[in-house]
Amino acid sequence: MSERNTDNSNGSQSWWAQLRASYATPLGMIGVGITTIFFILTVMGIAAHTAGMIQNPYAVIITIILFPTCMFFGLLLVPIAALLRRRKMFSRSLAQSDFTINLGNEHHRKVILLLLVLSVINIALFTTVIYQGYHYMDKPAFCGTVCHTIMAPEYTAHERSPHADVACVECHIGPGIGGFLKAKFSGLRQLADLVTGSYHRPIPTPVHNLPPAASTCEKCHWPQRYFGDKKKVFIKYSNKDQKTPEKQEVVLHLGGHDPVSDRFKGVHWHANPDIQIYYQPLKADLTKIGAVKVVRANGTVKMFTLGGKKKNLPWRQMDCIDCHNRPTHIFNDPVKRVDFGLYSKKIDAEIPGIRQDSLTVLRNQYKTREEAGKEILPDLKKLQEKRNGKNFVNQNEKVIAKTAAYLKEEYLANIWPKMKISWGTYRSEIGHQHADKGFGCFRCHDEEHMTESGDTITQDCGLCHKEPE
To answer: Are residues 151 and 11 in the same domain?
Structure first.
C-alpha cells in the first residue's frame, strides 16, 4: 500500500482523500471549472488593459469587475460542495481525532505547498483587480462613458474644457476615505436611478453635495494670487452686417490680493479669506438670492435683505463655484458660436444670409442627435435655396457643406434631446450677460439688497470693469 493510504489506519479516509472527494462532485467540479476559466480570463484581461489593448469602458468593467466576481463565485462553490458532501456522505468528519497533517509525509508537504502557492496567486490577483478597479473608477472615462445616456453631455463638455486634464474625482469627491465612501454610496443610488430610468432630465444644477472649493479649486487656484486688470474683447456680428465684426473692449478688474497695498480688491475681493460671505437663496437653482451676510475677521456682521417677507432656503457659504459655476462643463451659446464661426472663417461671410440661416438651423428642435446629424446640411441648403436660389446653392455647395459641418459639430457638442438639454439649459454665472434669466452678478448686486441702515449691495460698474484708456 502506498504512503498516501497509510493515513487510513483507523478505517477512515485520509484528510487529503476527504478533501479531494469533497470537491470531486458535480457542484465542486463546476466550481473548479468556473474558477479556472475566469482566472485565465481575468489575467488575460488585466494584461490587455495594462498594455492599452482594451479601450472600451464596458470591456474594462467586465475585466475588473465581472470576471473576478465569477472567479470568486467559483471558489465559493468548492467549500459549499465540500460541506454538502460531508453532511450527506461522510459518517466520520474532518474534525474528528483521526484528522491529522503529517509534515513528515512528503505528499502532505506537497499538497500544503500547492495550497499556499494557489492562495498567494489568488490574493495577488484580487489585490491587482481591486487596485485596477479603484483607479479606473477614478478616471473621467468611467464617469462619462459608462452611464452614457446620463453623463455623455457633461463628459463631452469636460473633454473640451480648460480642465480637461483634471479628473472628475478631483472636484466631485472630497478628500480622504470619508469623501471616497460618500461618493461610492452616492454612486449606488445613481446606479439604481440608471437601471430604473428615474434619473433627472436634465441633471439639475447646481450640484449641492460638491466638496467645498477650499479642498478642490484652491489646490491650484489659491486666493492669494493677484490677477490685476485684464482686457477682454467681445466680438459679435449682426444679420445686417455679417462681414464686419463689432468689437467691444472692456478692462476687467479681476483683482485679488494686491501685493503692494496688501488688500483684496476687484472681482476677487469675494475670495478674501478674512471675509466670509453667506447667502440664503430663494430658489433651489440659486438664480434668486434673498439675504446676504458678510462676516469680517474682526467679528462684525453686515446683513443685507430684500424688502418684504421672503421664504429663504438654508444658508450657504459663498465660494468659487457660486460665480464659476461651469468651470469644466461649459455649454455654449448659439449666437456666440455662429459669430465665432464667421470670425474664424469656418463660416463664409460671403454667402448672403448665412449668419441668420446658421442660427435657424442650430435652433431647430430635432428629435434626436442622429436626426440632427443627417438633417443639418439639407436644412441649411433649403434655407439658402429659398434665399439665394438653387443655382447659387449648387455653385457654392462645398462652402455651404463646410458651414454645415461646423454647425453639426457645434450642435452635437451642446444639444442632447433625450436629456432635454438645449441651448441655454446650463448658463454661466460669470458676469451679467444673462441677468434677465436670473444669472450672474446682479443676483446680489442689484441695489435692492439693503441693511437696516440703508446700505445696499452696489451695482456700480466701476467696481468690476472700465473702458480701456
So the answer is: no
